[in-house]
């Protein structure tokens, strides 16, 4: 049984006079111990999807339909106190901005130790010991001395290690990482990614990794889901998506990854305004292969006809998918 | 933290010295002949005073010495608690001042406690329930507290609770060691009037700052760790939101412990401010000097404690200065 099953998730934002749909009928599953990458541009709905799972959406946002099955229960229907016992205990989350996601008023040790005290009812001494162990686990140099330091004494990379330690403290079965490396240097980014990969293996953790960077996702994740304008366009194993993308948008994303000695392709145009989505396929105004039908009919997510094991679970929403043999 | 505390404590010394210079100069710059003033003459008519008396006073006040020397003598005496003799009461100034300090301290502390007890929880509540009736009630309270003058509100309170209902005495003061219940009865009205005024000030900053902190990323992180909403509010958000509050509380503490002129006058409460007013009317300059010095030193000392609280609330401050 899948650890996480998101079914037809739809999230609407009420902006007073107008409203917009930030997540539109998105479905995916995540097996225990598996790493799934969610890729998309800014405003594609990836962060809103993650926050829906945590039920930490902005008050203006509302899950209008769909279910989020986690470990046999539908998180959409859980009340706040039930969610509090799931957050940090069963599902951990790491955020994008390490510089602001820690409380400047408390020591980094306290911000991890409180998770142990709250969820596992550890004493102060036990929580402190476990925190130091966790700091060692996330390879924070000099873990013992780090306990009483304040966030402002740390670099972005070290802070991100602290937030990872806090998220993993109680041994959750799912870790949601929302662009954890976007705000740090490239060298630090590589370290954080390899740390996440290693922790995922060691703790047999399911990882929901959110990124705008398909290259990063391909390194860390076995499967990837591509979001565009609040909708899911393509999902499948990272290998398949990378070598034989069927959706022109996915192919465009791959073309946008800089490669030495090759001109950058990129995708023309910009993402539409979510308040007034285009009719038909949402990508058609930017699509090089668009046909008249693309502007009329909304393509539904269809399974790949190929039956090889690598292609299993590969699905895409396109009327005129690219040939599987293209790359 | 120890280093920071010592550093801040040392920085108080030059400030206080500067203040003593200002207070001393106060007497010199006052128009008219100080000897005549202190003898109770209003016109600059030297002939009205017998020569020997004038000369004795002149030498007693060391007015024959250069001004810097006068200051050093004055400072030396002041450090030993000797501010001279009160012209009106004919007793050492220090005795007059010390007899008035407790009343003001009780009133100041009581109103400060009322202000904090009202403003901090109410401010937090208003911020958490942003744009609901609670928030609107808080805004109304702030508007009322800031706009309505204390003396008017004080008079209304006297009218209702002392005159119509007869529950509380309208004026005066009883020392707590004499009769604690009567002490409380005399304290409650002025303390509440003063406290609610200060509460409105504190609440305004507390609410705004808390609202601002609620939208910070660390709040979302704390909730993502599964901490209950109440713990996130009272532990994580409150500590960061208190910096602005502490500033306002500090400013008001110095004001309250120095005594509130209007309220002490209205309630005929024998505190320091009333003493100051009486001394000004009576041209009792040594008393004025001592009271003003007390008020200013209080500001310096309160600021010192405010700085220490800042450093506790925001660890970055400790390292920036040490």
Task: Give a structural overview.
The complex is a heterodimer of chains A (327) and B (322). Chain A is of the alpha/beta class and 327 residues long. Chain A has two domains: 4-226, Rossmann fold (3-Layer(aba) Sandwich), CATH 3.40.50; 229-316, no CATH class. In chain A, 30% of the residues lie in helices and 23% in strands. In chain A, the strands form two sheets. Chain A has an eight-stranded mixed β-sheet, with helices on both faces. In chain A, helix 3 packs across helix 4 (124-137), helix 3 packs parallel to helix 6 and helix 4 packs across helix 6 (156-168). The longest helix of chain A has 17 residues, at 186-202. Chain A is globular and about 65 Å long. Chain A starts with a strand and ends in an 11-residue tail after the last strand. The termini of chain B are close together. In chain B, helix 5 runs antiparallel to helix 6 (133-147). Chain B has 14 helices and no strands. Chain B has two domains: 2-93, no CATH class; 98-321, Orthogonal Bundle (MetI-like fold), CATH 1.10.3720.10. Chain B has 322 residues and is an all-alpha fold. Chains A and B meet through helix 2, helix 3 and helix 6 of A and helix 9, helix 10 and helix 14 of B.
CATH topology (fold) name of the largest domain in chain A = Rossmann fold
Radius of gyration of chain A: 20 Å
SS summary, helix count of chain B: 14
User: Could you tell me the radius of gyration of chain B in angstroms?
Assistant: 24 Å
Please name the two chains that share the biggest interface, counting residues whose Cβ lies under 8 Å from a Cβ on the partner chain. Answer: A-B, 31 and 22 residues
The total strand number of chain B stands at 0
């Amino acid at each position: 049984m899948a650890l996480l099953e998101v079914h037809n998730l739809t999230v609407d934002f009420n902006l007073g006079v107008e409203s917009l749909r930030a997540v539109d009928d998105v479905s995916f599953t995540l097996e225990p111990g598996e790493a799934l990458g969610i890729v998309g541009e800014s405003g594609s709905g990836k962060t809103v999807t993650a926050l829906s799972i945590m039920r930490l959406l902005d008050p203006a946002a509302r899950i209008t339909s769909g279910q989020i099955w986690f470990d046999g229960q539908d998180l959409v229907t859980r009340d706040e106190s039930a969610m509090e016992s799931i957050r940090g205990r069963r599902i951990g989350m790491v955020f994008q901005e390490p510089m602001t996601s820690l409380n400047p008023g408390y020591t980094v040790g306290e911000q991890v130790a409180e998770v142990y005290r709250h969820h596992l009812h550890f004493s102060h001494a036990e929580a402190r010991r476990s925190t130091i162990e966790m700091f060692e686990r996330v390879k924070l140099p000099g873990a013992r001395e780090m306990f009483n330091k304040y966030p402002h004494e740390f670099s972005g990379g070290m802070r991100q290690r602290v937030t990872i330690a806090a998220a993993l403290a109680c041994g959750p079965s799912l870790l949601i990482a929302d662009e954890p490396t976007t705000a740090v240097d490239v060298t630090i980014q590589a370290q954080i990614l390899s740390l996440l990969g290693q922790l995922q293996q060691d703790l047999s953790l399911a990882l929901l990794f959110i990124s705008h960077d398909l290259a990063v996702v391909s390194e860390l994740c076995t499967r990837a889901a591509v979001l565009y304008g609040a909708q899911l366009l393509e999902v499948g194993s990272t290998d398949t998506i990378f070598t034989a993308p069927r959706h022109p948008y996915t192919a465009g994303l791959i073309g946008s990854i800089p490669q030495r000695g090759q001109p950058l392709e990129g995708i023309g145009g910009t993402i539409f305004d979510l308040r007034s989505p285009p009719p038909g396929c949402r990508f058609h105004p930017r699509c090089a292969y668009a046909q008249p039908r693309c502007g009329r009919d909304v393509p539904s997510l269809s399974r790949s006809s190929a039956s090889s094991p690598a292609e299993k679970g590969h699905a895409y929403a396109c009327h005129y998918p690219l040939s599987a043999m293209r790359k | 933290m120890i280093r920071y505390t010592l550093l801040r404590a040392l920085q108080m010394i030059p400030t206080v010295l500067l203040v003593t210079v200002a207070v001393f100069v106060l007497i010199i710059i006052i128009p008219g002949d100080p000897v005549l003033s202190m003898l109770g003459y209003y016109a600059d008519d030297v002939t009205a005073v017998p020569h020997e008396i004038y000369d004795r006073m002149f030498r007693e006040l060391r007015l024959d010495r250069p001004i810097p020397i006068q200051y050093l003598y004055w400072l030396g005496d002041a450090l030993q608690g000797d501010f001279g003799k009160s012209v009106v009461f004919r007793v050492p100034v220090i005795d007059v001042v010390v007899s008035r300090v407790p009343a003001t301290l009780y009133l100041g502390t009581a109103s400060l406690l009322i202000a904090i007890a009202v403003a901090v929880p109410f401010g937090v509540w208003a911020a958490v329930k942003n744009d609901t009736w609670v928030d609107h009630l808080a805004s109304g309270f702030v508007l009322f507290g800031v706009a309505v003058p204390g003396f008017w509100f004080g008079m209304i309170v006297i009218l209702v609770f002392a005159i119509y209902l007869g529950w509380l005495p309208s004026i005066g003061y009883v020392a707590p060691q004499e009769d604690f219940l009567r002490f409380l009865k005399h304290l409650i009205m002025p303390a509440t009037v003063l406290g609610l005024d200060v509460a409105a000030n504190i609440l305004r900053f507390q609410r705004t700052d808390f609202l601002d902190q609620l939208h910070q990323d660390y709040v979302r992180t704390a909730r993502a760790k599964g901490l209950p909403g109440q713990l996130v509010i009272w532990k994580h958000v409150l500590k960061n939101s208190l910096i602005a509050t502490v500033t306002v509380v500090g400013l008001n503490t110095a004001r309250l412990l120095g005594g509130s002129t209007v309220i002490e006058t209205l309630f005929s409460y024998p505190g320091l401010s009333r003493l100051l007013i009486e001394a000004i009317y009576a041209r009792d300059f040594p008393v004025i000097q001592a009271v003003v010095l007390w008020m200013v030193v209080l500001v310096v000392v309160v600021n010192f404690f405010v700085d220490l609280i800042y450093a506790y609330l925001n660890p970055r401050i400790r390292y920036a200065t040490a």
